[in-house]
Write a structure and sequence with these properties.
alpha/beta; Rossmann fold; 10 strands; 38% helix; globular; disordered N terminus
Length: 252
């Protein structure tokens, strides 16, 4: 009888773990994540041996001081960055084993990213920025445009579709960025300080958008200091010096 090779056993372990995570409703599984950055002669431990699960449909807030490593953790979870060591499963797929091309395609379909500095493409209009991920996913042009217009109207930006980013206020740029994150209807939304430096009216509008997304049972992970967003969370994770220092469930 032929014995399985080490590689075959490892592959079986991956399949069994993926199945177990799916059965338990765990959408994100992170184990012993480490991410270090070298700054001169110093090594900064941005994420220091972190393990974390996020359930399907859960709204998680990561809070902590600036420089705690929250953004790095979000980038690792979403596959925008790779850990020095550790394992990440996203929807039953071990993304830490993926090559960059496969990972980029996986991100495009499965995750919507909202950045503190918006990250809009400066040479594209508001409408074109929203159409961009839909174009990459292969959607027909007319469907892209129709969906982009609907999203702009939802963001109360129907009259801004031909504006370039520099012609938009900070709040308008962030609403375009949120529309872009929703363009491919991803099951996971990751947001890094989405209301930072915005006026109160815009912040409350974005809070209401996240409240609606929560009711649609999307899985949401946000790094924020915003009390209005924190109030929506099912679970609050306190993060400091690259580590989880406290977790608490929040009744909603």
């Amino acid at each position: 009888m032929k014995e399985n090779s080490v590689e075959e056993y490892q592959e079986l372990d991956k399949i069994n773990l993926a199945k177990e995570l799916t059965e338990q409703g765990i959408l994100i599984f992170c184990k012993n994540l480490v991410k270090n950055y070298e700054i001169g002669d110093f090594i900064v431990k941005a994420v220091d041996n972190v393990s974390l699960d996020v359930n399907d449909g859960e709204f998680v807030v990561i809070e902590g001081p600036s420089g705690a490593g929250k953004t790095t953790l979000l980038n690792l979870i979403g596959g925008l960055d790779s850990p020095n060591s550790g394992t990440i499963y996203n929807q039953g797929v071990k993304i830490t084993d993926m090559d960059q091309e496969s990972l980029a395609l996986f991100r495009l379909i499965n995750s919507g990213f909202i950045f503190q500095n918006y990250n809009l493409i400066s040479t594209l209009t508001a409408e074109e920025n929203i159409m961009f991920p839909m174009n990459l996913s292969g959607m027909k042009f007319e469907e892209q445009r129709s969906h982009a217009v609907k999203l702009l109207k939802k963001m109360r930006l129907g009259d801004r579709r031909e504006h370039l980013p520099f012609q938009l206020s900070a709040g308008e740029q962030q609403r375009v960025a949120i529309a872009r994150a929703l363009a491919n209807n991803p099951p996971i939304i990751l947001a890094d300080e989405p209301t930072a430096n915005l006026d109160k009216k815009t912040s409350l509008f974005i809070r209401d958008l996240f409240k609606e997304l929560k009711s649609s049972e999307k899985t949401i992970i946000i790094a924020t200091h915003d009390d209005d967003l924190i109030a929506l969370a099912d679970r609050i994770i306190s993060f400091d010096e690259g580590k989880i220092v406290e977790e608490k469930q929040q009744p909603n």
